[in-house]
Each structure stands twice: as structure tokens, then as C-alpha cells.
């Protein structure tokens, strides 16, 4: 049973591409019900088109968070989805939208990827922050989103070294290579959990 997801993007879309590649290759049992960008003209839109998917642009410029999220949810509510997947989405979600995806445990069905070993280096420039700090080891975190920035239950983490002589570009490239494998892998785990829950529910009938 595929995991039904909606993917939110803001930029070049490298993680969107990795997720769509994994679905196409059969490594990820998921169905992309919607792709939404808060910016027009970004690379993620072209990646969606390359996979034969139409992405929706709902501009956020000049709008308060909740004002934009009302427009966003008005579109997303048309789709039955298991998880919102943030793939380079550069907006902090407010409780208004998060509560639309609250599950029975009180968690939010919203998944994010962050390029550090959280709780270290939250924020939008984590690769640069970690590099400038001089870390010998950094990593990638995938977590459920909560009301705090780059915070919430951690689903997976994977570390990578900073090598002697690394430039920031080399450091970032090493992290991105992990991002593009780890994110689809964690989403596949969520798909398997859904299948298990479905099978268990059927077995109790």
C-alpha cells in the first residue's frame, strides 16, 4: 500500500528529485498526490515536470505565515495524504497548518530533512554554520516537525566527516549525497509502517 504524500518545495529541488527517482526505481512505495512551491521559477518545478508531474505554485511573498497556509491547505485538503514532506521548503510552519495533520498520538504527520546532527546547528544555513564552526563530524537529520524550528521527534540521523582540506562546497556535496539516499529510505520505512498497520487492522476484523 503506497504512502500518500504531498511535497512542499522552495528551491532547486534536489531532494524532490531523489524522492521521485526512488519511486520510479521501486525503492520507495509512495504516491505523490501533490507538489507545491511557495516560489515560482525555481528548479523544483522543472524537476516535477521532468517526472510528468504538475506542481502547484502558491506564492508566499508578502503574506503572513497563517495567511499563506490557509491558501496552501485549501489546496491540499483536496488530497488524502499520509504525510506532508518538506523538501527544501523554506517556510516555518505555524500551528494552524501543523494541527491539520495531527495524528492520534499528538504528533504531526509532517516530515523534514535538516543538514546537521540536530539539535546542533538549527536554522537555514546549517552546512555553512557547521563548516565555519570547524566540526570534524556533521550529519543529516530527518524528523517529524513540531512548533519549534528544526525540532521534533527524530526519525533518522546519519553522520559524515569533514575531511582535511575540504571546501564548503565539498563538505556540502558530501552531505547532499547522504540526504538523497536517507530521505527516500526513511519515507520507505513510513510506507512499511502504513502497510503493517493496514494488515493489522484487517486481521482484527
Task: Explain briefly what this protein structure is.
By secondary structure, the protein is an alpha/beta fold.
Can you describe this structure?
The model has no long low-confidence stretch (mean pLDDT 95). The chain has a seven-stranded mixed sheet, with helices on one face. Helix 1 (14-25) packs across helix 6 (168-203). The protein has helices at 14-25, 43-50, 65-76, 95-98, 126-133, 168-203; strands spanning 3-9, 30-37, 56-57, 83-86, 110-114, 137-144, 154-161. The chain has 205 residues and is an alpha/beta fold. Helix 2 (43-50) links the parallel strand 2 (30-37) and strand 3 (56-57).
Read across the widest sheet, the strand sequence of neighbours is 3-2-1-4-5-6-7
Second CATH tier, the architecture: 3-Layer(aba) Sandwich
Biggest β-sheet strands, sense, barrel: 7 strands, mixed
Number of helices: 6
What's the β-strand tally? 7
- Spell the H/E element sequence: EHEHEHEHEHEEH
| CATH hierarchy class name | Alpha Beta
Average pLDDT rating: 95
Which spans of ≥5 residues are poorly predicted at pLDDT below 50? none
Termini distance? 18 Å
- CATH topology: the name is Rossmann fold
User: Strand content of the residues, in percent?
Assistant: 15-25%
The helicity comes to: 25-40%
Amino acid at each position: 500500500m503506497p504512502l500518500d504524500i504531498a511535497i512542499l518545495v522552495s528551491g532547486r529541488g534536489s531532494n524532490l528529485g531523489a524522492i521521485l527517482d526512488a519511486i520510479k526505481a521501486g525503492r520507495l512505495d509512495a504516491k505523490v498526490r501533490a507538489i507545491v512551491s511557495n516560489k515560482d521559477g525555481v528548479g523544483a518545478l522543472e524537476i516535477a515536470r521532468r517526472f510528468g508531474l504538475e506542481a502547484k505554485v502558491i506564492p508566499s511573498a508578502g503574506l503572513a505565515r497563517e495567511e499563506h497556509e490557509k491558501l496552501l491547505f485549501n489546496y491540499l485538503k483536496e488530497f488524502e495524504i499520509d504525510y506532508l514532506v518538506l523538501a527544501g521548503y523554506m517556510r516555518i510552519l505555524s500551528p494552524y497548518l501543523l494541527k491539520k495533520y495531527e495524528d492520534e498520538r499528538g504528533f504531526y504527520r509532517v516530515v523534514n530533512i535538516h543538514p546537521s546532527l540536530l539539535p546542533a546547528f538549527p536554522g537555514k544555513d546549517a552546512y555553512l554554520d557547521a563548516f565555519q564552526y570547524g566540526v570534524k563530524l556533521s550529519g543529516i537529520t530527518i524528523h517529524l516537525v513540531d512548533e519549534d524550528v528544526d525540532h521534533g521527534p527524530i526519525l533518522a540521523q546519519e553522520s559524515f566527516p569533514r575531511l582535511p582540506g575540504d571546501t564548503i562546497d565539498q563538505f556540502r556535496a558530501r552531505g547532499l549525497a547522504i540526504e538523497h539516499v536517507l530521505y527516500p529510505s526513511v519515507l520507505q520505512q513510513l510506507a512499511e509502517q502504513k502497510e503493517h498497520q493496514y494488515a493489522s487492522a484487517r486481521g482484527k476484523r
